[in-house]
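User: Can you predict the 3D structure for this chain?
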Amino acid sequence: MVNISDAAAVKSKEILTAEGKDGWGFRFFTSGSSCCGPSYGIDIVESAVEGDETLEKDGVKFFVDATTLESLQGMEIHFVDEGDKQGFVINNPNPPEASSCGPSCGSSCGQE
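Assistant: Here is the predicted structure, written as structure tokens:
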């Protein structure tokens, strides 16, 4: 299960309204991968693509393809607004295991 925070739903609704796209949704997809795990992208779309799962929170639709949905299981999609940091964040309670990519990944994986 993917959890969409209240803050993410509220901000999503604000963005869609500001863009004049009420009734549209956000599509989450895998945009790449590295030794730190997958990277995700977000698009504003009118409807789901064939094969997408549709999640809904407070009237906002979130579309996710089956492969990405599998990798998002247990994660929370959140929106942060802290000073100069503002944006959607996907919190992973199950960080990727250490990989064999060596020190090139360093601490850039966001693991603490």
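The first strand starts at residue 3 and ends at 4. The beta strands are 3-4, 25-34, 37-45, 52-57, 60-65, 76-82, 85-91.
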